[in-house]
Amino acid sequence: MCGRTACTLASDEVSRACSYRDRGGQRRRPRWRDGDADKYRPSYNKSPQTTSPVLLSQRHFDKDAPVDECVLASMRWGLVPAWFKESDPKKMQYSTNNCRSENILEKKTYKDPLLKGQRCVILADGFYEWKRQAKDKQPFFIYFPQTQEKTEGEDDPTTSAGNKEDSETVCPPEEASPDLTEGGEAPGEWSGWKLLTMAGLFDCWTPPGGGEPLYTYSVITVNASMNLESIHDRMPAVLDGEEEVRRWLDFGEVKSLDAMKLLQSKNSLTFHPVSSLVNNSRNNSPECLQPVDLNSKKEPKPTASSKMMMSWLTSSAPSKRKEPTTCESKEERESEAEAQPKSTGALHEWLQGANKKPRSK
Asked: Among 7, 13, 120, 129, which one carries the catalytic annotation?
């Protein structure tokens, strides 16, 4: 299953991180739907009923759009079917956070969106999963392996995370991925954090009495891959690479049954154990992602991928990053406290900044 994710990139970074090549070979950066960039909130600890960045075909909103044009949208996690007749989606009697790939065609909630081509890609830094143990559960953070190139004499980014002058980012956002031209083309590819791309289905529900349409999604799951089955027996259906993402989103050319062939267990993810701090969805701080040593509970020697994560989070430009907020919307704050856990870590200190005030967007 997949019940918690993290997506810490700011809205403009998300757009750059999922740039793609169109059929003409031009690299393009997907735009956000009108107003949706403002609805998105970065978070170290996203739970169901909160909003996440989702990539989908622009043709769902504009039938005359180019067949290969993609768009970003903020959608709520937990699919509400279009045919749901209650006035409040909270009255749904069953969970739609995940849908099992093998049961999609058996349940109307998922079969209808699938056959209508309502396929999407949920974007995240990675997801959390809990491994059952004798007395408790141990959380892990699972994500795409990250690569980094270290030049001779370069400081280890994890040894100077709190000092911007001594810490060289692996991929400075301003240099690694220049902004697009007015036509939407990018001269270079994104080389920052590689976002996890999970296959999903979405639907659009409109209140019976009228009102603003609500776009929601469900994460498709498959049997866990060999390297993850010791943690949990299920995992998100991961789309690995631009071609798989393109085929999943192209509902015109790739029919539903063919698209479902992409829903396979893939042995392409890596992971590390994290603190039980993430168990509470109210906790939203860098400590949720930081590796822990299961024996000493101290920070272990970082792997290449976790080092990349630490470097990216600590060294990317503050002007380009939205600061995550504990709660993602007024509705989501109704049952949650505003307070965040205290931290003395260098990573947390840099992200918060001595004089930095939390942004509302």
From this structure: 129
